[in-house]
Design a protein that fits this description.
- The protein starts with about 25 loop residues before the first helix and ends in an 11-residue tail after the last helix.
- The chain is built from eleven helices and two strands, in the order αααββαααααααα.
- The chain is elongated.
- A two-stranded antiparallel sheet has the order 1-2.
- Strand 1 and strand 2 form a beta hairpin.
- Helices cover about 65% and strands about 5% of the residues.
- The longest helix is centred in the middle third of the chain and has 24 residues.
């Protein structure tokens, strides 16, 4: 009986780009975002021409054009007739974009971008705490009390503590009724909540101190004290971040 000759298995390594997500344009975009933020393509300079990008990433012109379109939507490049695709100034970048913010944080040794993130969060959440003290009903106030009491019991379990911590802040934000401010804060937090540079130190004593801040916020909201609730939130976010970032040796930019 004649059998078909077996074809030897191809043992050559699989190119890295073929192991990327099926949407190659997104994969190319992610790589170019990282390179632009890192400074490999400085602001005011053109991206390499299409043929070079095609060869670099082993993709078609269609993929490169789609990636450039996405970069333009994120504010990182501008297509100019006769000049090519120019890298824009960081002031034009969409800092709420997941890729842009993530790459910027990764490249920032000074922690300045995280300081700016905390300042933004502090301003928005302080205002939302003010509104929550005006608008929260008895059910919301009871939810805040339950969360604060539970966090006192969880100070030795940092993972569970931080889960309840996020629930506390989100309850305050929802009570404010400001969906846009809540959306901005949640978007920013989602990019950094699992990064060591943002979470910093998380030992038990810090959870204890942190929950004292939560309790002051809860008490001011329960007392219907808008200014007091805003001040308590402002102080809590400031002090919690300064403690988490301590040990970095980097100057902070929070005292504004």
């Amino acid at each position: 009986m004649t059998t078909a000759r077996e074809t030897p298995a191809d043992t050559s390594p699989t190119p890295a780009w073929t192991r990327r997500p099926t949407n190659l344009a997104k994969a190319v975009t992610a790589e170019l975002v990282e390179r632009i933020v890192r400074g490999a393509h400085p602001p005011g300079t053109p991206l390499p021409p299409e043929p070079v990008l095609c060869e670099t990433f082993a993709v078609s012109r269609t993929v490169v054009r789609e990636a450039v379109k996405i970069l333009q939507e994120k504010g990182l490049v501008q297509v100019r007739q006769g000049a090519g695709t120019m890298v824009t100034s960081p002031s034009s970048w969409d800092m709420l974009d997941e890729l842009v913010l993530g790459a910027t944080i990764a490249q920032d040794d000074t922690l300045a971008i995280l300081d700016d993130l905390v300042v933004t969060r502090r301003l928005l959440e302080s205002d939302m705490a003010n509104l929550a003290a005006r608008l929260a009903d008895a059910q919301v106030i009871d939810q805040l009390r339950v969360l604060v009491d539970r966090m006192d019991e969880l100070v030795g379990d940092t993972a569970a503590y931080h889960e309840h911590d996020r629930a506390f802040h989100d309850t305050v934000m929802r009570a404010s009724g400001n969906r846009i401010a809540r959306g901005v804060v949640r978007s920013l937090e989602s990019q950094v909540m699992n990064t060591a540079r943002y979470m910093g130190r998380t030992e038990r004593s810090l959870c204890v101190a942190s929950n004292q801040g939560h309790r002051k916020i809860y008490e001011r909201i329960a007392a219907r004290d808008p200014d007091g609730a805003a001040a308590a939130m402002f102080t809590h976010i400031t002090e919690a971040w300064l403690v988490r970032r301590s040990g970095s040796g980097k100057p902070d930019r929070l005292h504004r």
